[in-house]
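Thread title: Can someone regenerate the structure for this chain?

I was given the following input by a collaborator and told the matching structure tokens would be attached. They weren't. Posting the sequence so someone can regenerate them.
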Amino acid sequence: MATVLHSAPRIASNEGVLNALSGALGQVVEGAKEEHGEIVLTVARHSIADTLRTLRDAHDYQQLMEIAGVDYPDRAERFEVVYMLLSLTKNHRIMVKCNAAESTPVPTVTTLWPNAGWLEREVFDMYGVLFAGNTDLRRILTDYGFEGHPQRKDFPLTGYTELRYSEDEKRVVYEPVALPQDLRQFDFMSPWEGADYVLPGDEKAAEAPATPPVAKAARKASNGSPAQSASNAAAGDAPEPTEDRPARKPRKGKSADTKAATETETGTRKRAARKPKGDGA
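Best answer:
Regenerated them for you:
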């Protein structure tokens, strides 16, 4: 079999990459780590465009694969904008992060990669992060009249408005969300272990008698004689009848006469079928 030579290794190593990139970027690096087999760099927000340009031109990370957002509501700068870069010559990937708040725009990188325009619009639509310099920053996934940003942690699961097609108005209408039932929460617990809380309907178990009816019946049967206990066990502890029905009156005639009557009626029908019908009859 012929040997296939690749221009880049199948799996690139992270050895020395973290120190090399951190030293090249200098003071703009706020944090650097290797996590889950990936190099993660956190840089200052105002220098994100210059940082990505340096990584593209000087370190051969030619492609911008994705821009994602993360929401941490408890932080002063609640958002993280994550840039994922790919080096085709090294077959290596890195992640670059910067922090942002609702009122602190992030410099756009559309001047470095044209596809960043659509990716920044997605982060803006889902999280509300502003990108300074993006000339077409508008919603891309939600509707034009959508309120809020769905990927924020404090955004309600049901949203604020819903749309439907109205047969009366023959158009799509917007209405406030109206739930036909309460929002249900599922904990996905094992049915064999049981829940830590009282399920609907189980509160009646506290009002039930301490001794179940089956145990009472068994104890009552055991107090009787052995013969009576055996008969009760064989009968399955059947209850006594609550009323007496009168005996059914005997039917008139005998079952032996049924055959003769049936044969007589059958013969009459056959003779009538064979008798030709007269013209005037």
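The first strand starts at residue 29 and ends at 35.
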